[in-house]
Amino acid sequence: MSKSLGNFFTVHDLLDQGYPGEVIRFVFLSTHYRKPMDWTAEKAREAEATLRKWWRQTRWVDEGDIYQPVVDALSDDLNTPKAITELHQLAHVADARTLKTTARVLGLLTDEMGQWAEDAEVAPEVAGWIEQLLGDRIAARTARNWARADEIRDLLVDAGVEVRDGQEPAWILRPDFDPAKLEALK
Question: What is the number of other CB atoms lying within 10 angstroms of the CB of residue 13?
Answer without folding.
Answer: 10
